[in-house]
Inverse folding.
């Protein structure tokens, strides 16, 4: 058996000029000049802005990366670290995942409507065609930073009393359980990459065409009845999927 040991690197020691550059860049971030998820200017421009050489600037940026304030991406440059939502195989709501990581979740209803189910939706939800559905669009946030655009489609006959305003700054799973007595215990979930359209980009504060990750689910309650269809579009810099995988014996 091989043992692996991990050594903790000593904190980076900076000279006075690099320390001043680090503090100047940190101030630009903390005062909101550069926002979470935003790309920093090129090294030449940023070095001129904080009045240091590019070599010294790189030292300062590397120090801020060690502090978790910045992150570098090969070929793309430096970015302000955005809150990340890590999703594990255990089924949790967005709110539960956020709170478990010490982040403050938010949900802002963008628009909503009651409409008849399409044939495909009726099939997925085991409903009669044209059954009434509540469709709710929300922007989900972590610590006030827009992370994803969430579209939920719920059959009203299975969620009596549910109204869109109830989902403002609230957990969908939690509201379904509290208001309708529906406990979601299963989600059939798929993830794929897409490019953000103009509406999604505007809601998330990213450029149209920017890469996004789209998760789609059919969620079911304890008895196996499907109770919602969901489509969540995440900023590419704010989502990661984690799983523990096993080979069969």
């Amino acid at each position: 058996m091989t043992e692996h040991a991990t050594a903790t690197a000593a904190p980076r020691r900076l000279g006075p000029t690099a320390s001043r550059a680090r503090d100047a860049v940190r101030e630009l971030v903390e005062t909101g000049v550069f926002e979470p998820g935003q790309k920093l200017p090129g090294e030449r421009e940023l070095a001129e802005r904080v009045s240091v050489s590019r070599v010294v600037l790189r030292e300062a940026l590397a120090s801020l990366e060690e502090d978790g304030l910045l992150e570098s991406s090969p070929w793309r440059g430096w970015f302000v670290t955005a809150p990340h939502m890590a999703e594990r195989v255990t089924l949790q709501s967005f709110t539960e995942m956020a709170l478990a990581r010490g982040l403050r979740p938010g949900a802002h209803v963008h628009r909503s409507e009651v409409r008849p189910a399409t044939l495909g939706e009726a099939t997925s939800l085991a409903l009669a065609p044209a059954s009434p559905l509540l469709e709710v669009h929300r922007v989900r946030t972590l610590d006030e930073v827009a992370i994803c655009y969430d579209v939920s489609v719920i059959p009203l006959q299975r969620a009596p009393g549910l109204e869109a305003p109830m989902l403002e700054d609230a957990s969908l799973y939690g509201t379904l359980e509290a208001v309708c007595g529906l406990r979601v215990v299963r989600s059939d979930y798929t993830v794929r990459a897409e490019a953000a359209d103009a509406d999604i980009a505007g809601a998330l504060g990213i450029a149209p065409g920017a890469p996004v990750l789209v998760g789609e689910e059919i969620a079911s309650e304890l008895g196996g009845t499907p109770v919602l269809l969901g489509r969540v579009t995440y900023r590419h810099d704010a989502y990661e999927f984690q799983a523990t995988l096993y080979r069969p014996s």
Q: What stands out?
A: The radius of gyration is 22 Å.
